[in-house]
Amino acid sequence: MPELDTGRLDRDGVQDRSAGRLARAIGILRERGPLEPFRLVRRHGLAASAGFVTRNVRHLVADRLARNWDRDHGVDTAGSIQLAGLNVVGTNRDQGNECLCTSPRTFDFIMRSLAADLGDRTFIDIGAGKSRTLLLASRYPFAKIVGVEFAHELVEIAKRNITAFHDPGQKCRDIEVVEADAAAYKFPPTPLVVYFYNPFSKRVFDIVISNLVASLRENGRACHVVYGSSSHAAIDWAKPAILASNAFEQLPTPPMPGFLDAVRRIDYAVFRYRPDGGEDRPAA
Ligand SMILES: C[S@@+](CC[C@H](N)C(=O)[O-])C[C@H]1O[C@@H](n2cnc3c(N)ncnc32)[C@H](O)[C@@H]1O
Q1: Which of 30, 152, 175, 220 could form a disulfide with 87 if both were Cys (CB 3.0 to 4.6 A apart)?
Q2: Looking at the domain assignment, is residue 24 inside a domain?
Q3: Ligand 1: distance of its center to the CA of 145 in Å?
Q4: Inter-CA distances, 202 with 97, 135, 228, Å
C-alpha cells in the first residue's frame, strides 16, 4: 500500500510526516488521474484499500484537531516527527520511535484511572517529544512536571511551548525538560507518576524500568507507571516487563475509546508500585 507521508521540514527544521498530508494526497490523485482509487482496489483488494483510506482520513482529522489545539494554546506540539534528522543525545537513536503526541482526550481518559492524590507527585514523561503531555499534565495538580527527551530540536521546541502555553485551567507551572537519554536518567526521590507513550524498544525500556525500580527500592515512595501504545506488540512486551520486576501490580482500567483527536487508538495499562512485590497479585 503506498504511503502519503514523505513529510516536510517545518520552521524548526524537523521533518513532519503529518504536515501537508492532504495536499500530498490530492497531488498524487492529480498526478495519477481520477482512476487511481480503482487501480488501488484492483491491486490491493477492497478491504485493504478501505483500511488504507480510513487510516488516512483518521490521521487527517486527528492532525487537524491537534493543530487547532496548538493554535488555541499558543504552542507547537502536533505532527509525526522523524528522528532521523535530529541531534540525539546518547547511543540509543535506533531504538527510539518517532515523536507522535498523546491526544488530549486520551490523556484525560488515562488520568481518570489513576485515582491517586497527585498533590505530592512528580509527573515524568519519558520521551517527552514537543511537550504535549507535559502541558496536558499541567492541568492536573501535580507538584512538579518533568519531561525527558533525547532529541535536541524537540527539547528546544518543548521549552518554547512551556513558556508560551496559555490555558486558564493550568494548575502546575513547575515544568522542566531534561535533555537526556532515558536510559541514563536518574529519577528524583519524590512520589512519582511515570508516563510512557511507546517511546522506544524493549531494550531501552528494560533499562529504564530497572533504574526506576532500583530508585524506588533505595528510596521507598508512591509511584504509578502508565504505559500507552498504539502498537499492540509494544503493549504485549511492556506489561510483562513491568510485572517481571516484581515491584508493580497492574490496576484494572476501562478500554480506551476511539477518540477522534487520536491519530491512532492507544492501548494502555496502569501499574502501582508495591514495595512488597506485586508478583502474587493477578494482573487485571
Ligand atoms: C511517541 S513520542 C511520545 C511523545 C510524548 N510522550 C507524548 O505522549 O505526547 C516518543 C518520544 O520519545 C523520544 N525518545 C525515544 N527514545 C528516547 C530515549 N532513549 N531517551 C529519551 N527520549 C527518547 C522520541 O524522541 C519521541 O519524542
Answers
A1: 152
A2: yes
A3: 16
A4: 11, 26, 14
